[in-house]
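Re-run with default settings, no changes from the original entry. Doing this only to confirm the output is reproducible before filing.
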Amino acid sequence: MHTLLKSFSAGFALVLTTIAVTPAAAQGVFDMGALTNTISTSANAQAEAARAGKAVAAPSAASLASLNYKPSTDVRKQSIKSFVDGLRTLNPEVAGEFEKVFAQVDIIDEIGKAVAPYGLKTDNMADAYAIYFLNAWMAANGRTDQNTPEQIAGVQKMAANALGNTPDMLKLDDAKKQQFSEALMIQGFLFDAILQESVSDPAALAKVKADTKAGAKEMGIDVDLFVLTPAGLERKK
């Protein structure tokens, strides 16, 4: 959502964008394929139905309420530790730099401040998925323009419909909802940070675009199937 980076302090953003980590590497430290593939199947089915002009059933109020969770400081610490530990197996030096940053700044809190003006929250699975999906699409397409409130709201609605109609997600406990959501938000931010650092270098930008597409596919999202419209991300016709 072009772009979270602009909402962060200059010092914090500089540290993250100068860490040499690709989207694919960041993606690889999380193991959420089963969950995100389940969601993506639901999202793709709904997008296809909408493209065909068919009505898409809205989730019940109870289902939408179940997308919220009560965050825990202990769970967040474990989420960050899992990210750093996973990254350490890929690049110990980069992992050490992230560990230093995360020791100084609560990245989820920073993301929350950045997305709050758009009506998004960091304690809602659909909002976290929207942050991931939109930032992945933007990075995969090399786009750094500012998304409109309408576009962000459209992606959030699509995410809420997808997750709200996915029973396996609704029955997760708060800890698992938080782990899922915070992993997505961290990845979404990294997509954005890496894109901003690479946009002036054609070769680096091409790699970011390719790596982001590959990483998103591992999560069950084929960004090439979607187009960004004034109303959000929609399935290509």
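The radius of gyration is 17 Å. Residues 74 and 155 are 30 Å apart (CA to CA).
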